[in-house]
Amino acid sequence: MALETTTLFDEADALSRQIDASPVGNAAELEAFRIQFLGTKGLLKQLFGRMGEVPADRKREFGQRVNAVKELAETKFNDAKTALEAASAQAGPDFDLTLPPLPPVPGSRHPINLVRQKIVDTFARIGYAVAEGPEVEDDWHNFTAMGTPEDHPARDMQDTFYIAGHANMLLRTHTSPVQARVMESQKPPIRIIVPGRTYRNETISARAHCVFHQVEGLYVDENVSFADLKQTLLYFAQVMFGEKTQIRLRPSYFPFTEPSAEMDVTCLICHGEGCPVCKHSGWVEILGCGMVDPQVFENCGIDPERYTGFAFGMGIERIAMLTYGVDDIRLFTENDLRFLEQFKAEA
Ligand code: PHE
Q1: Which of 254, 258, 297 to mutate to test the pocket of ligand 1 (most atoms within 8 A of CB)?
Q2: What are the tens digits of pLDDT across the range 38-65?
């Protein structure tokens, strides 16, 4: 009997240690604590219930001991409860979880991307496949293969970013090097459209940027003529800008085409009437083009006796500016939502 009594007193001590160690850091823990120790079937009630096992002369002492443990539990419970209530009052009013969510704000396609896609789609309809090439290019593909050997004055046409520490590596100044890459690796017939980012060491202004985008086109087969080029470009201009659009070709010079031309279209804003965008001429320049120079074929391993071809290249920013009436090229890279949001309807 004496031994059992000691055990009950030990149990009261163990229970007080257990109370000390139990976590009450949040509402769930606090409720679990209450049920475990202070509930109607809790451990304290159970221990009180064993009063009958205690010898008469020690009942009083045992009752006091268990009461002390009960007080310990109650104090811990009440303190934690007060602390949790204070913390949740500080966190502000409860959220109203029945409110409907804010409507999601949908993004929109970037205007450069919209124009690029429209150009690619227009040529896809007549059998052109998309090709791509590296933006960090070697001197051979960007210049030499394209008819601009070292010390050739035409290199001055394009101010180039060279890669420090890598002789002959540069950021491509146009998408034309992809012409050379495709001709080196594929046999005619070749019919490709090449959208991509290009770089030139230009002072950034409303009209020029050092990072911009081009789309290149290349068609190589037997008997490809200048008439094919002209008809292809007329088709493109009318799908892209409207079926009333007219084109005109002016003689020009590029190191990789012969003959070369620049193409104008009737002004996208005034449709030829004359306005500030076309400087009252009724025409705006859209792209450069020409027949692939036989020397370029030779550089890329294609027989110039058997094949002819045409190529063209255009700046996406320029077309986007003319299409949407944007007067500052820097708007395309500033990520101002007030600007970008205007193109939502087109997405
Ligand atoms: N690569 C030329 C440029 O950047 C454009 C062009 C491409 C001209 C293909 C003719 C043929 O200005």
Answers
A1: 254
A2: 999 999 999 999 999 999 999 999 999 9
